[in-house]
């Protein structure tokens, strides 16, 4: 009789990570200022960082380019993220919400994000290069979230923010459309099921995501990426993806949880063999 302990599922692995029981999580990557420094030093492509401010009241957009991204460096999800374009009347059009905002309104909204921030000692407000979409009719670039298990990509979560509600699609680790049957479940009410758009540079995207995870020496990391006119760029890194963990918009099936848990185990073994 097999008395060996059952392998931990992906969710069980994530609970250990979130509780501080794993020393390879690299939580510092949640700080986008530090992530920019790391990627610049190690040659991983990111959007250009134009400016950083320590607090929202310091924000000055006098010399801002026509189009840019404004976001806090230590907030989660889309808190405080703005895709801004300067308009002729002196206001800024915010693409994600379709609003025209004055500089005072921008400061006010960023102040609200700052007020709830739990990491004010590390907080910075960042103005960053805006990556243009390469898909006709889709002005907001698709977000490709690559789940890498050390040296092996297993899944790519595609997000289209040009629709309302936003739409999800999934690829496997080879960037082929993923058959969700028996793997990912959702009623698709809060988020829609979108069409697959595999970027032309998908192989380069997987290589960058894999090389970055290997450089961090972690058994799991989600690399959030965009495909722009100049090729793939890293948007941010997520050590603990919330959707899959909490089941907010979709959930992994029990069998897929086990498969991804085994992928985590195998990634740790390969890391150990290469140490």
From TrEMBL:
It comes from the Bacteria. Pfam families: ATPgrasp_TupA (PF14305). Residues 36-269 form the ATP-grasp domain. Keywords: ATP-binding, Nucleotide-binding. Transmembrane segments: none annotated. GO terms for molecular function: ATP binding; metal ion binding. This is ATP-grasp domain-containing protein.
């Amino acid at each position: 009789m097999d008395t060996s302990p059952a392998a931990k599922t992906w969710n069980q692995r994530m609970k250990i990570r979130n509780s501080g029981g794993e020393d390879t999580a690299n939580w510092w990557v949640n700080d986008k200022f530090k992530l920019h420094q790391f990627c610049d030093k190690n040659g991983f492509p990111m959007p250009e960082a134009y400016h950083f401010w320590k607090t929202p009241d310091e924000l000055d957009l006098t010399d801002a380019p026509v189009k840019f991204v404004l976001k806090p460096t230590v907030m989660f999800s889309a808190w405080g993220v703005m895709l801004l374009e300067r308009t002729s009347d002196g206001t800024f059009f915010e693409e994600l919400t379709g609003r025209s905002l004055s500089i005072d309104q921008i400061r006010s909204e960023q102040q609200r994000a700052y007020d709830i921030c739990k990491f004010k000692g590390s907080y910075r407000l960042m103005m960053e290069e805006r990556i243009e979409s390469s898909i006709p009719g889709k002005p907001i670039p698709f977000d490709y979230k690559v789940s890498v298990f050390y040296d092996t990509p297993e899944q790519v979560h595609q997000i289209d923010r040009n629709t309302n509600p936003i739409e999800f699609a999934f690829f496997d680790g080879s960037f082929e459309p993923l058959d969700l049957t028996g793997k990912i479940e959702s009623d698709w009410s809060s988020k829609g099921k979108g069409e697959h758009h595999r970027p032309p540079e998908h192989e380069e995207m997987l290589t960058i995501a894999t090389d970055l995870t290997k450089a961090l020496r972690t058994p799991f990391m989600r690399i959030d990426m965009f495909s722009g006119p100049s090729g793939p760029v890293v948007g941010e890194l997520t050590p603990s993806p919330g959707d899959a963990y909490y089941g907010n918009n979709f959930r992994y099936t029990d069998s897929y949880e086990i498969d991804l848990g085994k992928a985590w185990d195998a990634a740790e073994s390969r890391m150990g063999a290469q140490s």
